[in-house]
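Retry 2 of 3 after timeout on previous attempt. Resubmitting structure tokens to design endpoint.
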């Protein structure tokens, strides 16, 4: 791994979630434990806290990092939330960071990044059968075009063109081959033209948006009275889901389950962007349970 994972918006997470000693904590995307360590250093409540990640490499790292009496779950966050509700667990603090971690992006073998040369994989959980290679080489031209519009937010004409080029140049087996093909059919702007295509494929491989949609309505059932939930997103599709859910959950007057703490999403400041450029698209929204 080229870089250690730098947790985004760390000071903002601590300020808005305001952890206190003895509070219980649920991290639904614990990753490499950056946010978790900072929060648990305040709460010091390991036995009532749970760390979740679907990536086995992240889970191995968490087990090495946290040798205390803490529960670590190797599963997706929807499954974790469902299991915890079934067990009657509740928490004072919940955090979910829906971004891809730096170690995932920087590890060529994971196939997440258009900047590196690796296999077309993109699985957060490598136990699942669906990979990026399956989508790129076996989905129909029409399905690819629809995917690029829906999850990559590409214009329909460009999406169709890129889908046609991919089908014409099959098989594509590496991230570099796919990125180079997209680049050859594009004008380079301030972002790499492959970025939205890689985003769309990654979302499809990991079923990311559907998992978020299923999970959000369950979160109030896991929060104690005055409990806080913070959610970090990295693109507009995710942020819109969170924004709309928080707005809906707060719309029932005295019957509302959550009250937004942040009227607008919190974003990284200039000092963080110098250290961690990947934070530039991060947005944090926080809500509280009555």
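Retry 2 succeeded. Sequence:
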């Amino acid at each position: 791994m080229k870089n250690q994972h730098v947790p985004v918006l760390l000071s903002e997470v601590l300020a808005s979630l305001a952890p206190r000693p003895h509070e219980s904590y649920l991290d639904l995307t614990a990753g490499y434990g950056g946010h978790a360590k900072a929060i648990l250093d305040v709460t010091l409540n390991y036995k009532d806290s749970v760390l979740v990640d679907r990536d086995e490499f992240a889970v191995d790292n968490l087990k090495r990092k946290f040798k205390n009496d803490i529960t670590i779950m190797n599963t997706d966050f929807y499954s974790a939330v469902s299991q915890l509700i079934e067990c009657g667990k509740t928490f004072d603090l919940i955090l979910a960071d829906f971004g891809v971690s730096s170690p995932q992006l920087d590890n060529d073998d994971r196939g997440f990044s258009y900047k590196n040369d690796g296999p077309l994989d993109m699985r957060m959980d490598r136990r699942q059968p669906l990979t990026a290679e399956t989508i790129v080489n076996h989905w129909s031209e029409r399905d690819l075009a629809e995917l690029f519009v829906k999850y990559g937010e590409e214009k329909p004409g460009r999406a169709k063109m890129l889908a046609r080029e991919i089908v014409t140049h099959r098989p594509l087996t590496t991230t570099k081959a796919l990125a180079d093909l997209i680049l050859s059919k594009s004008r380079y702007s301030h972002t790499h033209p492959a970025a939205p295509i890689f985003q769309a494929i990654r979302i499809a491989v990991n079923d990311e948006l559907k998992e978020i949609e299923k999970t959000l309505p369950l979160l109030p059932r896991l929060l104690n009275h005055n409990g806080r939930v913070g959610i970090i997103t990295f693109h507009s599709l995710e942020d819109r889901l969170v924004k709309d859910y928080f707005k809906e959950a707060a719309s029932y007057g005295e019957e509302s389950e959550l009250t937004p703490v942040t009227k607008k999403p919190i974003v990284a400041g200039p000092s963080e962007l110098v250290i961690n450029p990947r934070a530039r698209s991060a947005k944090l929204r926080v809500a509280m349970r009555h």
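Attempt log closed. The mean pLDDT is 94.
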